[in-house]
Amino acid sequence: MKNLLKLTSYILVAALASAATFFLAVPQMPGGNEYSKLAELQALLDERFIGDIDWKAAQDSAAAGMVEGLGDRWSYYMSAETYERYQEQMNNSYVGVGITVTEREDGYLDILEVTAGGPAEKAGVEPGGIIIRVGEQDISEIGIDGATGLIKGEEGTDVSLTVRYGDAEQVFTMTRSYFEVTVAWGQMLEDGIGMVTIENFDGRCADETIAAIEELLAQGAEKLIIDVRNNPGGYKHELCEVLDYLLPEGPLFRSEYYDGTTQVDESDADCLQIPMAVLINSESISAAEFFAAAMDEYDAATTVGEQTIGKGYFQQAYELSDGSAVGLSVGKYTTPNGVSLANVGITPEVEVEVDEELFWQIYYGNVEWQDDPQVLAAVEVLKNAE
After folding, report:
1. pTM to 2 decimals?
2. pLDDT-based confidence at residue 280 (cuts at 50, 70, 90)
3. Which of 21, 142, 15 is nearest to 74 (CA)?
4. In this structure, are residues 115 and 94 in contact, taking their beta carbons and an 8 Å threshold?
5. If you average pLDDT over residues 102-109, what whole number do you get?
6. Which of 2, 199, 308, 319 counts the highest number of beta carbons within 10 A?
7. Mean pLDDT, all residues of the chain
8. Residue 242 pLDDT
9. How does pLDDT run across 321-347, given as a tens digit for each residue?
């Protein structure tokens, strides 16, 4: 998985269910022995450990280890700070300065992208720099989580970043602002072909996706490419609303919950009847995979690109009493035809692989569609479509 943090989003494995609050008054564990061991260990540490104990950090590590011990790659623990960012991500909104960064081996942050019109751009920050301090804090000492916490803050308050460009350091002071992340957007390509890119299936996805498609249709698009490459998934209701707009009457998505209950989401008869293709790759996860699968099973689109990862469980985010949370796999889902994608994924009908360098250039949006072999392959598919 990518070592990438957008200050607009944090958790890449997004849930397909709403967050819930889950307070435990008295911890209970099956058999009692396991809980006794944890209590015994805590007492031992408290009595005998010679150093100072950061109990919050210790409990976060213990909770993360317990979830990891489930052996489920899709369940995860979130500290209170991480859960706060997770909630922002699911809403596709945040308060920040408008930068996209990735963590370096030395603990500093490379600036990959600066949001047009955002506080960072207005202050003069440019991509290619390295953030080394937030205020007076050297961020190599606190990691990307700590740095993110310092950069975030109340809307309207100021934050200073020290950025290194080559051998020179510059200090930029900017005022934090509220952002709504653009979820979906469209562009006209050629020969009446339009392309819509869907960033994720979180908040506002359906509204923005449908609006982007209708804008392309108004511009004369007669065929459509839908790009869900590098899309980590999102909410089931957003996914189903997009599919309902595109597909004819029938099942869209099948869910089976931990208690044995099942649910089938259905589409009405209205649909978009034009030739379509869906772009996928190894980072098309969860809702993105099931979007492509549904389009394929209805023969509504040709899938183009690379094999997807194969996610078959959905998660519910349960908030704990200290503000931390657990994203727990609570059910499994299948395609409209009842097919599980778990550990299988989708093999595209038209396979087009790209090397790692080009993969990252596409991921960061640095490749024009004319230079993107997967887009070009989809264009050729649609040129030959009736």
Report:
1. 0.79
2. very high
3. 15
4. no
5. 90
6. 308
7. 88
8. 97
9. 999 999 999 999 999 999 999 999 999
Give the pLDDT confidence score for residue 298 in this predicted structure: 97
pLDDT band at 30 (very low <50, low <70, confident <90, very high): low
Under CATH, which number does the domain 1-92+183-386 receive?
3.90.226.10
What is the 3-class SS of 196-248, one letter each residue? EEECCECCCHHHHHHHHHHHHHHCCCCEEEEECCCCCCECHHHHHHHHHHHCC
Domain 96-179, second-level architecture: Roll (2.30)
- Shared fold status for 1-92+183-386 and 96-179: no
Q: Which residues pair with 21 in a beta bridge?
A: 319
Cα dihedral 34/36/41/43 (nearest 10):
160
SS3 per-residue string spanning the chain:
CCCEEECCECCCCCCCCCCEECCCCCCCCCCCHHHHHHHHHHHHHHHHCCCCCCHHHHHHHHHHHHHHCCCCCCCEEECHHHHHHHHHHHHCEEEECCEEEEECCCCCEEEEEECCCCHHHHHCCCCCCEEEEECCEEHHHCHHHHHHHHHCCCCCCEEEEEEEECCEEEEEEEECEEEECCCEEEEECCCCEEEEEECCECCCHHHHHHHHHHHHHHCCCCEEEEECCCCCCECHHHHHHHHHHHCCCEEEEEEEECCCCEEEEEECCCCCCCCEEEEECCCCCCHHHHHHHHHHHCCCCEEEECCCCCCCEEEEEEECCCCCEEEEEEEEEECCCCCCCCCCCCCCCEECCCCHHHHHHHHCCCCCHHHCHHHHHHHHHHHCCC
Query: In angstroms, how far apart are the furthest CA atoms of the chain?
Result: 76
Q: Give CA torsion, residues 341, 342, 348, 349, to 10 deg.
A: -50
- pLDDT of residue 190 exceeding 60, the answer is yes
What are the domain boundaries of the chain? 1-92+183-386, 96-179
Residue 96 forms beta bridges with which residues?
177
Cα-trace Rg, the chain:
23
Whether pLDDT at 248 is above 60:
yes
